[in-house]
UniProtKB/TrEMBL annotation:
Pfam families: AAA_lid_14 (PF25601), HTH_50 (PF18024), Sigma54_activat (PF00158). CDD domains: AAA (cd00009). PROSITE patterns: SIGMA54_INTERACT_3, SIGMA54_INTERACT_4. It comes from Effusibacillus dendaii. GO terms for molecular function: ATP binding; DNA binding. This is Sigma-54 factor interaction domain-containing protein. Residues 1-183 form the Sigma-54 factor interaction domain. Coiled coil: none annotated.
Amino acid sequence: MRKKPFIKVNCSALPENLLESELFGYEKGAFSGAHPNGKPGLFELAVGGTILLDEIGDLPLNLQAKLLRVIQERELRRVGSTKTIPIDIRVISATNKDLKKLVKIGQFREDLYYRLNVIDIHIPPLRQRIEDIPLLLDYYMHKYGKEYGIKKRIAPDTLDCLRSYHWPGNIRELRNLLENLIVSTTSFEILPTHLPDCMKNQPEPQYLAAKEPETITLLSDERNHHGGLKQALEQVEYAMIQNALHKHGSIRQAAASLQIDHSTLIRKMRNLKICKP
């Protein structure tokens, strides 16, 4: 069976004056410097498969109208041509912008938004998915290790630093970091010292172990019921985590005693502000 094409386009990376011809192609003589035989666009190359329009929120308004027509009519015209070309493709779009907000301020077409928004998948930022970091590390370490012919491993302390980092650049930042570390480090094991200062200066939370945690009697204390069930549960969770950290003095051992993942415990500690001031 023939493999179907998958074409990825970064709408923010292409110059605006070339974007239309790159997406929809052009005929010979369409503009100065055009190929003498013309050129098919990325939509034509994706026929029978899928095209991913990344950073769709950066697409200029004039091209949004043309894209809407292509999607609705399932046909396109190359730049400089009056002939229509039928296309049968799947369109996936992605963005890190709030398209609803862009629609309200007139920077994104409402009709295109609803035409694209058939199945909406929201992916939270990486800082809210720290449990995914080990999986992403495995994937990119294998990918770049194979690409450069270099085998490396992430030290446990380095993993802790990466889990504690807030990742403003999301997966792109993680991907670029790992590629750089694989190429630039000389040792087999990637250590915290190899990380940028902004990452290695964010150790795991330090725990308040100076005093013995209070006994967990919150649910039997009538004064704590006024905040509702959620507040009561948070108080119990807070006390249990403090107790485990005081008893074991290690986040990994505390997570094991609480029968939760290491990353889950870190997230709960952040939410409950269980850290050294």
